[in-house]
Specification:
54% of the residues lie in helices and 5% in strands. It has 174 residues and is mainly α. Strands 1-2-3 form a three-stranded antiparallel β-sheet. It is rod-shaped. The N and C termini lie far apart (127 Å).
Length: 174
């Protein structure tokens, strides 16, 4: 009987792994390398992506801050407020301004002798201090949002506005 050929292990070469286990080992190493590359790519791209997403917000915030510093207020200055008409409130004056007996800003009633302002454009009545604090921030009426004009500017604007209204009324009647 003949014996199968024996491989000699004394030749100095390492023992050979079966081909299936060798493929599994290479596949496992390849998967590990791919996972490492994906993780590195993720951690390199994540800061770049977040920077690109947050950049428009940062730029918008900077522009807003620059606009706010270049135009600190869109309201009237204290010199302009002094040009607005003011009067002391008396019960007889209430008949002229019969719309309301309270200030729409502070919701407090008008008392005898209090300083008040009656807006030229719309005719709404307010306490002077309340309206002045409002007009420093915004140049429109707190109730109807009509633009507040200084007394000399108001007449020309109101005159042209009343002409427009009558012309518009004429169109409606046609």
């Amino acid at each position: 009987m003949s014996s199968p050929p024996q491989s000699s292990t004394s030749g100095g070469s390492p023992p050979q792994l079966p081909s299936k286990s060798k493929e599994k080992f290479l596949s496992l190493i390849l998967k590990a390398v791919i996972m490492m590359l994906l993780i590195c790519f993720f951690f390199l791209i994540l800061p770049l992506a977040s920077f690109l997403l947050l950049l428009p917000l940062v730029l918008r915030h900077r522009r807003h801050r620059q606009r706010r510093h270049s135009h600190p207020s869109s309201g009237f200055s204290s010199k302009q407020l002094k040009k607005l008409p003011q009067f002391r409130f008396f019960q007889e004056a209430k008949a002229d301004h019969s719309e309301s007996d309270t200030c729409a800003i502070c919701l407090d009633g008008f008392r005898q002798g209090q300083w008040c302002r009656n807006l030229v454009g719309c005719g709404h009545l307010f306490h002077r201090k309340c309206l002045d604090s409002w007009l420093i921030k915004v140049t429109s009426c707190p109730i109807c949002r009509t633009g507040v004009c200084l007394e000399n500017e108001g007449r020309s604007i109101l005159d042209s506005g009343s002409r427009r209204t009558t012309n518009f009324q004429g169109l409606i009647n046609l």
